[in-house]
Amino acid sequence: MSLVTPMVIFQGDLATAIHELAKCKHGVALTGAGLSLASGIPTFRGKGGLWEKYDPLVYAHIQCFLHEPEKLWQMQKELLDVILPAKPNKAHEALVTMERMKRLACIITQNVDGLHTVAGSLNVLEFHGNKRRLVCLNCSNRYPSERYLEQCPPRCECGAILKPDVVLFGEQIPIDVLMRSRSEASQADLLLVAGTSAVVSPASDIPILAKNSGCFIIEINPEITPLTGYVSDLFLQGPTEEILPMLVEGLQSKTNSDRTP
Ligand SMILES: [Zn+2]
Asked: How far is CA 233 from CA 7, 10, 124, 227, 228, in A?
């Protein structure tokens, strides 16, 4: 028996989430792959996924880039063909509105599609980098990823082959992003976990750090996760592109009714 009946949003839970969002002083969102599904970006794991064709531990490893960059670019080319044309969906847009309403101080994302920034969110911490940029490990120049369309593997002005500006296997998460994410999580009094089960480190530290600081945690996912009922104070079941706009709508009508004398 499933613990949760699929696709039932309890109005009471929704009202609680809106109430908590409306009163929080430092809201933070932690997002993952589920948020970009509606933008046509599949999770590359699983049957028929890109990771079945290309083992990421080989094709997305820093050693592969250093020694056989052409091989790394075989897989990267297919990834970029999917990611670059993708557009933000209603979930990304809802988070932009929450930031503008001063309900969110920042977004910590595990996604590398850059869609939060494309949508217009300003304070975004990208744990794993951004595939919309290329970086030169030789001279640190950065370029838009579209450069690969003209020449693949793409090259820097200095002649070196460019690397997608993401954290490859065998590379460390940038320390500044890690420190800032941890600091945001410790300060947060509300954490929205959306489209991720946050089981992979270091993202998995974020809900725990927040929880230990007494933060209220709202989880939005289509299925229950290891966080549900243990770390999450509230679970809203469903696709993020449906639930996040419902929260925004609730916040807006609450703000309007609070203003009415
Ligand atoms: Zn260079």
From this structure: 18, 14, 24, 9, 8
